[in-house]
Every structure is written in structure tokens, then in C-alpha cells.
Amino acid sequence: MSTTKRCYYETLEVERNADDSTLKSAFRKLAMKWHPDRNPGDPQCEIKFKEINEAYEILKDSDKRAAYDRYGHAAFEQGGFGGGAGFGAGFASSFSDIFEDLFGMASQRGRGTGRERGADLRY
Which of 46, 47, 64, 88 is deepest in the core (most CB within 10 A)? Predict the structure, then answer.
């Protein structure tokens, strides 16, 4: 059963440039409207409610939102970044490595002073 997912921004009924408070407000409004407890016996409400939650989980996190804006749903699907639903550990470490290379943090981490961190602390 392959279904095409709607754009997360369309799902939450917001513009692509919506700020965090606008996203949160839209999510709350739609979650209240489509909550299965408010619409007993309507199987479409449960589906819609899950879509709203999924969209908000991605868009409320700035890193996930950036990946979604760049790659769309492919960023979170099987074969995407880390596979599974969301970012896998492989993506996180790759992303971290890229930032370390860009901002010079890799040399600090890798140089090894021979001393264990915190060894000079006393209590």
C-alpha cells in the first residue's frame, strides 16, 4: 500500500516560512479538530491526526525541518538518511563530521593531549 504523502506545510496549513509559534498554533488547532476522541467512529480522523502529528514532529525541529526543506519526504524514508522513520545514527554522525570539518572542531577533538578530561578536578 503505497500512498503519496502530502507536503507537511500543507498538512499543517501554514506557509513554508512560518515561525515556531505559527507552527505550534496551527498544530494545536488541527490536533483539536481531528483528534479521534472528538470524532468517535470516524477512521479518517485517526489518519488525519497521525499526519498532523508527523508533520509537526518534523517541522518543529530545526535540523529535521532543514532536511525536509532540502530533500522532502525522502530525508525520512527507507534508504534516506539513516533509514527508518527519522534520522538514524549514521546521519547524525555524518552531519556532525561535516560541521566539525567546516568549523575546525575536528582538530580539537582528534589532537588528544594525553590527559583525561576532568583529571585535574578535585573535590
Answer: 64
